[in-house]
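With this grant's support, we have settled on a layout for protein records. One resulting record is reproduced below.
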Amino acid sequence: MKRSEKPIFVDNLAATLKDATCVVMVDYAGLSVSMLQDLKRSLREVGSTMTVIKNTLLKRAGETAKLDSEAFTDEILAGPTAIVVTEKDPIAPLQVLAKFSQANEIPQFKVGIVEGSFRDKDTLNTLSQLPPKEVLVAQAIGAIGAPLYGIVGVLNANMQNLLSILKQASEKSQ
């Protein structure tokens, strides 16, 4: 990349990082070309992209985007780094990366920024174990709705008992 192109690249990357719901940095050392292509394909299916970027350019873009500086330290940006970015469900790319990592032992999480908050490697591993967002929403709705169904059941039971008593009373009077 030419020196004159770097500021434009950094600005574009900073805009992408600002709009992202999830930015994860991974150590991709040891991935073969075919494995990298498979991983990128899996990430695209969940609306994410994986890009290999020079650490200095990534650090500048992070500073320009005013993201948590803890994610862009020299210790974290040592060695080969790829970023996974999504503007959709922030957990889906973590799940794809964790599943791929379990099967191949690479790539390894470095750090990430999930919905604006800095996350370390352990937290990213924990988040990758969560069910998809749709399942979590369905579980929450079910938990909220369960007491309502219980109330309806109790009210219906009392109504059924009353109807049963009235029916028995009408049968006796006939």
Notes: The chain has two domains: 6-130, 132-174. Helices lie at 6-19, 33-45, 55-64, 92-104, 121-128, 133-173. DSSP finds six helices and five strands in the chain.
